[in-house]
Amino acid sequence: MPLAETTEGGGGQGQLGLTPDEPIRRGHAHSVPDRVVVVQRPEGPGGPGAPTTPTFAADEACCQAGAVRPRVRYTGTPAGRVAWSASGTGPALLCDSGWITHLVAQRELGAFGDVVDRLAERFTVIRYDKPGCGLSDRDRFDLTFEGQVAAAMAVADAAGAGRFRLFGASQGGQLAAAIAARHPERVEALVLYGTCASGRDLAPAAVRDSVVALVRAHWGLGLRALAEAFVTDPSPEEVAAFARFQRDSASADVAARLLEVYYGTDIRGVLPSVRARTLVLHREGDTGTPFELGREVAALVPGATLVPLSGSSHLYYHGDWRSVVEPLLEFLGEDAERGPRLTARELEVAELVAQGLTNQSVARRLGVAPRTAESHVENIRRKLGVRSRAQVAAWVAERRRDR
Description:
It is built from 14 helices and 13 strands. It is an alpha/beta fold and 403 residues long. It has two domains: 5-338, Rossmann fold (3-Layer(aba) Sandwich), CATH 3.40.50; 344-402, Arc Repressor Mutant, subunit A (Orthogonal Bundle), CATH 1.10.10. Strands 2-5-6-8-7-9-10-12-13 form a nine-stranded mixed β-sheet, with helices on both faces. Strand 5 (71-75) and strand 6 form a beta hairpin. The N and C termini lie far apart (43 Å). Keywords: Hydrolase. Residues 1-33 are annotated as: Disordered. Residues 335-400 form the HTH luxR-type domain.
């Protein structure tokens, strides 16, 4: 099944339909605040600088909910080497926030950091810079839709997320839906915000071409028209902040190419194949992507729930961000609360694993054969959808807090 189709021409009514991550207030391309740790490990399976052993626990030491010291890691992907980070503890939540990204600067912008911290109270939030953007490699990369999907899956693998929940906003929503359709065995639940099924529906062909030309010619120069695509009546400070973010997140050519890919992607044939529980969030007055396009997405995904939101900002972290995050948490929490069913013995073994005991030590403690202990641990990993003992320990810690 193809991930998506590329379409040309046509188009209905709408605005520009763009979505950056957030306007940057400080920093430069590839610059990292002092309190941020960038980790580049020796060459591993993912390529130079990729983590040799995927684990959430190492990230959590620096990225507990409420903290702002993300460990930036790198992994090789089919689309180029990509920067990623994980924060919080609990079930994995892979996030794609849209068009252009800067992994470190995002946390300092508007309410973006508040959104991540709120999500990290319940989940291990996995974020990454798109190929060619932010802290990811900028010299060799693949910006095609298929390349972006491959990069996202490589990040999930590097993070050790066997199964995960998935959040995608705007262009990232198309990506998230395609991943859910292609990998139903790995996606437990899907949340889409402010997205569309076909990029050509965002604006007529002539308008789409003019927007791409505008990006190439005026990228990072503070053009008010670009800021207005995301925020209603932006202040001069917001326009200037968005311009700085443009300069730091991507080159004009990369931004324009990513926009062309968005405009040319049609996932209407993919959405009916999504099997994961799906929530579609969309602001009724969205200035970037008309509400009707979000309603179409919800109608095409079997069993999807559509939640109309008040407001007009296309950016979910601008304006009343809590009205976006709370239904998202409630929806994902329904799945998390049902959770995996471990037997009494498996729960006992999971507690011992969380204490740092090896399989041999677990066997001695329980008076069972080492092979039996090993089987229990493998069953626990399979049921939790995790790959490492550190992730089992994180699940145990989350379970204790919820009691």
